[in-house]
Design a protein that fits this description.
Elements (H helix, E strand, L loop, with lengths): L7 H8 L3 E5 L1 H9 L5 E6 L8 H15 L3 E6 L21 H15 L8 E5 L1 H4 L4 H8 L4 H5 L2 H8 L6 H17 L3 E5 L3 H13 L6 E5 L25 H9 L3 H12 L9 H16 L2 H16 L10 E2 L7 H12 L7 H9 L4 E2 L2 E2 L14 E3 L5 E4 L2
Helix pairs in contact: 1-2, 9-10, 11-13, 11-14, 12-13, 13-14, 15-16
The protein binds one RNA strand of 82 nucleotides through helix 12, helix 13, helix 14 and helix 16.
RNA sequence: GGGUAGGUACCGAAGCGGUCAAACGGGGCAGACUGUAAAUCUGCUGGCUAUGCCUUCAGAGGUUCGAAUCCUCUCCUGCCCA
């Protein structure tokens, strides 16, 4: 068994690549040298059903552990999700219903296994132990940490400094999450740098229980498409890992050059080739990421299609969703119908559509349609541009 | 429990009887310029069957020709004291 492991020092080198914070490498090396599979914990909150590239950074690291022969322990925080992780938050999180959490957990794991090796992953729900606790147990748990420790956290400190509320259940979060480490007897815990505090609490609790404390491994937080805030669904700056190839590629093409370099590093583990034209580099990034979650062919065609649409403006044979003109033939009606039919999730309001039209965003074969009441001759095969990202082909 | 400051659109924040769908900033969207980059300039940013109509300024009532603005009660939050 142990013979199948790479030498500990080699493993260490691989594992610490791209890691922002490791406490401590020395201890990790010692654990690796034992030659037995390590239990690597990753706690996830099923608060949002869609996994995106931001989550992928840490999942990729976990997979790396798996590849080296270690045991991944994925904790679904069905219980903790009801508290809501206050990390990096300036406000209290809304609590989720039990049903929503379970449904999210389902889609979450399904997506996580696009990255992780399912056969080498142990999945546990932390409700398993927390739901059994009595109030007395909870008090006991709370007795292990001090108020001062909890208040040391950035998030709380900031909120207090800004006269914003901090609710008591929120300061329970690190305690609860830390206890997970004791329950699963983790050797290593992964998380974003914003999880440092939480993970350290787990380490303390293990020590308290007489266990060998877990290694803390924090990965850099991936910025979202805006390049400023962290990638998150609620900020609408994310690329979902199960998004369509074209969608993925398009989103990645809209990022800034600066951010592109970060993505190369954090998502691909590569240094950006500065000799490359930024545009080409970005296309390469897009292709590689699409290839990772779909296929090489999908990546190639996403790129070709994108280039046809946006670079060459040769819309002729680009692959576009087809829209069949309905009852309404006026510009306002057609644009509204097209959004509702093909992009219902992002359909703008009537007023917003009016704006798109009057501001020249809506174009038929490159010609701006600025009159909402106009009734152009809609001909099959023509390309109607709705907004910056969306175009449709008029169906016959 | 006492005192005190507050609750305004996506966020921050003005407004304190009419000219308020509500200044300003951020964010977002759109156009020009580009590489669907950045920077810059410009416009827009409650909804609708749209030269008008409807619903908003924590909630419920009230005063008034007229309220985000005044009064009453209720709910919520910060800070100080206990």
């Amino acid at each position: 068994m142990s013979s199948s492991f790479l030498p500990a020092s080699e493993q260490l080198q691989l594992l610490t690549r791209g890691v922002a914070n490791c406490i401590s490498e020395k201890e990790l090396l010692a654990k690796l040298e034992k030659g037995t599979p390590l239990r690597v914990k990753l706690g996830v909150d099923p608060t949002s059903p869609d996994l995106h590239l931001g989550h992928s950074v840490v999942l990729e690291k976990l997979r790396q552990f798996q590849e080296l022969g270690h045991q991944a322990v994925l904790i679904i925080g069905d219980f903790t999700a009801q508290i809501g992780d206050p990390s990096g938050r300036s406000k209290t999180r809304p609590a989720l219903s039990r049903e929503a959490i379970l449904a999210n957990a389902e889609t979450y794991t399904e997506q996580a296994f696009r990255i992780l090796d399912k056969d080498k992953t142990e999945i546990v729900f932390n409700g398993e132990w927390f739901n059994k606790m009595t109030f007395a147990d909870v008090i006991q748990l709370n007795a292990r940490v001090t108020m001062q420790q909890m208040l040391q956290r950035e998030d709380f400190k900031n909120r207090i400094a800004n006269d914003q509320e901090v609710r008591l259940h929120e300061i329970q979060y690190p305690i609860v999450q830390g206890w997970d480490s004791v329950e699963v007897r983790s050797d290593v815990e992964l998380g974003g740098t914003d999880q440092l505090f939480n993970i350290l609490v787990g380490r303390d609790m293990q020590k308290d229980e007489g266990m060998e404390p877990q290694i803390v491994m924090c990965l850099t937080i991936l910025e979202g498409l805006d390049g400023v805030q962290k990638m998150s669904k609620s900020l609408h700056n994310y690329v979902g890992i199960s998004e369509e190839p074209g969608e993925m590629f398009g989103k990645l093409m809209s990022i800034s050059d600066e951010l592109m370099a970060r993505y190369f590093l954090l998502l691909l583990g590569e240094e950006l080739d500065s000799a490359m034209h930024p545009m080409d580099a970005k296309k390469l990034l897009g292709e590689k990421i699409v290839a990772r979650y779909h296929s090489d062919e999908a990546a190639k065609s996403a790129r070709d299609n994108w280039e046809a649409l946006f670079s060459n403006k040769d819309v002729g044979d680009a692959d576009l969703p087809e829209f069949t003109i309905g009852e309404r033939k006026d510009v306002l009606g057609v644009v509204g119908d097209a959004f509702r039919a093909l992009f219902p999730d992002e359909a703008p309001s009537g007023s917003q559509i009016r704006q798109l039209i009057s501001q020249g965003s809506v174009q038929l074969e490159g010609e701006k349609l600025t009159d909402i009441k106009a009734r152009p001759e809609w001909t099959a095969g023509q390309v109607l541009k709705l907004n910056k990202k969306r175009r449709v082909r008029i169906a016959g």
